[in-house]
């Protein structure tokens, strides 16, 4: 067994959060620069320029990119040969989020109805997988509320064809993306069950922008969908243009004979994520 | 670019057209969901002629004026806006579309809706020259702030005639 101290986990999670909220990942920045070259709408070009300029200011001055620094969502792969020592694993992760959000906005309320702010941006949402090996792999998404609010799930019948699913995706993007801070990143989950499909859609968001599914037919569909979405004319911040989405990533999973769940999870252009291995 | 100063008069408001790019200077007030729920018929500042910015910043770093401050989704405040326009509020700043009821109330009460791009909050913070909490400090990031802004860049998304960019 390899021993890992909880203080190490806290330290790594804290550093991931602090960096993610101020630094726009290279793949997102590169996609925005390409979009600016292709965008023809006047407001679209101006907004893309501001987004790129904002990323520069945020990185230089270590300022959060967006005032909504989001919910910390962590996907953790825990190697089964790791022994966690000196404390509780979950507490160590939450403490990392607490420390890493020092300069982030405290956006979490303890109760959805009473709405009292927890004042430290915890609890974070943790998805844990036990895997082989002696390492801990942590993926973080700092997920803003605006884009999250525009996400949706639909339970289709198994007889539904691909064209109907495509119509559902395009219709959802058309109706919901203007308030999700476009250009958006779109995660689509297909399969699993009610709870599993939402998780698939969220995982799909964590794929690098520009990286397609390894399945050929899905890769082809992702490319076609992105082209169709960017022809909807929604544009940056919904004010018109060719740049509505930077990426659409589809993830699939096995499902029940009577089900065909589809989930769509939006992320805004301030697409903040990070990864670390201990 | 059209320069405007708060408080706004009816004449200022009526001169603005959907699509105009403006630079706003003067005092504006932040409020979002939790603050609006507390307003009732007594907002904690004189709303006449003023602008509400649907926003709540990140924490202010030592020696700085304010943290990053961009807009939140305006439609969540649609239910509250008509009453505020009746009290004399002249403008709101946020992101995204507004309801039919809000637009009708804007026409009736002569008010304007500005949008600023979401997610450019570090850049927008550079236009804030002073900030103070004037109400509901217990709401943490959702407290009402009085901001002094200079050349704050925004786009007129819906004008007082009801003409919209959407």
Give a quick rundown of the structure.
The complex is a heterodimer of chains A (278) and B (166). By secondary structure, chain A is of the alpha/beta class.
What does this structure look like?
The complex is a heterodimer of chains A (278) and B (166). Chain A is of the alpha/beta class and 278 residues long. Chain A has 8 helices and 10 strands. In chain A, helix 1 runs parallel beside helix 4 and helix 2 (26-38) packs antiparallel against helix 3. The longest helix of chain A is centred in the first third of the chain and has 20 residues, at 42-61. Chain B contains 5 helices and 7 strands, in the order βαβαβαβαβαββ. The longest helix of chain B is centred in the middle third of the chain and has 10 residues, at 100-109. In chain B, helix 1 (10-14) links the parallel strand 1 (2-5) and strand 2 (21-30). With 166 residues, chain B is an alpha/beta fold. The chains are: A alpha/beta (278), B alpha/beta (166). The interface between A and B is large, with 40 and 35 residues.
Shape of chain B: globular
The CATH architecture assignment of chain B turns out to be Alpha-Beta Barrel
What gyration radius of chain B follows from the Cα positions, in whole Å?
A: 14 Å
Q: Strand order across the biggest sheet of chain A?
A: 4-2-5-10
For the record, what CATH class of chain B applies?
Alpha Beta
Strand adjacency order, main sheet of chain B: 2-3-4-5-7
Low-confidence stretches of chain B are none
* Series of H and E elements of chain B: EHEHEHEHEHEE
CATH names the topology of chain B as: fumarase
Summarize the main sheet of chain B.
5 strands, mixed, barrel
